[in-house]
Write a structure and sequence with these properties.
Layout lengths: L16 H13 L3 H5 L4 E3 L9 H8 L2 E3 L3 H12 L1 H18 L7 H12 E4 L3 H9 L2 H7 L10 E2 L2 H6 L8 E6 L12 H4 L5 E4 L28
Parallel strand pairs: 1-2, 3-5
Antiparallel strand pairs: 3-4, 5-6
Helix pairs in contact: 3-5, 4-5, 5-6, 7-8
């Protein structure tokens, strides 16, 4: 019953509560994550042919190979909640594979797409917060401009990130894409820009309102978590 490790009161799961409710109900009656996610889009992992890349298979068939574990359950929920975004990520993967084949190592673009898909967050941040995040000015981000967070929160997209947060700890960090549009409008993901991994680290439990301990500003003094900019 691995899905019971999720606390649906956690604020970072709020975007997924509605799509998750019927899925969890079906999981209680069946151990198949693919079946619980519903529809023809999700299939058992065994349907992925040996030797075919996961992303290429999705691009070719429109179906997502799914294992019976928390990681793939969360991936499925992101597909259900943000299908346009997930399709955009997959199309870019598939196009790269079609152009270059499957290499021993992913190139820069596929590395960035994978990093975001696993550990990314999408954020339409107010300018002052975006600038503070880019500078890794944690005091400005979380203390000086704290009131600005009331109007904006990052949306956690990475399913590995969501999986890690089943057991929250301060060091869990998202790779944030500072977006100009909502995640339902992923056209701003452009290959040339993303090949450079244009992401910014954000310790997730530092988000105001997401973790009780950060109500004390001393929470942000831990330099092993809130690391200074690289010299």
């Amino acid at each position: 019953m691995f899905w019971r490790s999720l606390d649906w009161r956690a604020p970072w799961l709020a975007p997924y509560v509605e799509v998750a409710r019927p899925v969890i109900e079906r999981l209680e009656a069946s151990d198949s994550v693919a079946a619980a996610l519903g529809g023809p889009r999700f299939v058992a992992q065994g349907e992925l042919p040996e030797g075919e890349a996961y992303e290429a298979f999705i691009g070719r068939t429109g179906r997502v190979p799914t294992r019976d574990n928390l990681h793939d359950l969360l991936n499925g929920l992101v597909w259900l909640r943000f299908p346009a975004l997930k399709h955009r990520l997959n199309r870019l993967h598939a196009a790269q594979i079609a152009a270059e084949g499957v290499q021993p190592q992913r190139g820069p673009l596929r590395n960035a797409l994978t990093l975001f898909d696993e550990n990314g967050a999408w954020w339409q941040a107010p300018p002052a917060l975006a600038e503070a995040l880019q500078r890794r000015d944690w005091r400005a981000l979380f203390v000086t401009h704290r009131a600005l967070w009331a109007a904006s929160r990052p949306v956690l997209i990475g399913h590995a990130l969501l999986e890690k947060l089943a057991a929250p700890r301060a060091a869990i960090t998202a790779h944030v894409w500072l977006a100009v549009a909502a995640p339902e409008e992923p056209g701003s993901i452009q290959p040339a820009a993303w090949a450079g991994k244009p992401f910014h680290p954000l310790p997730v439990l530092g988000v105001p309102g997401w973790w009780p301990a950060n109500e004390s500003f001393a929470f942000y003094d831990d330099a092993s978590v809130f690391r200074p900019p690289r010299g």
